[in-house]
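Subject: Predicted fold for FUSC family protein, 83 residues

User T.R. writes:
Posting the sequence so we have a shared reference for the thread.
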Amino acid sequence: MPQRPLSELTDSELLKESKKLKSIQITNAFLVGFLIGIIVYSVMNNSLGFLSLIPLYLIYKIVNGAKYEKEELKRLLKERNLK
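User M.O. replies:
I've generated the structure tokens; pasting them so everyone works from the same file.
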């Protein structure tokens, strides 16, 4: 089932997406913390190398992907006077 753009959702569907986004943010925060732990462990074992860059790239993708969706959702909620 293809996902519809946020601007096409009804008010109730938009509020559901807002609640879903909150749980996704918690999961993303856990993943970022876990990846930072991997980097710290790698540095402590004096093995800063190419494999340490992979978690950094994943952190970047997680943070940037969530940022754009969150901004659009907040804009739509404010535009429709929902909360």
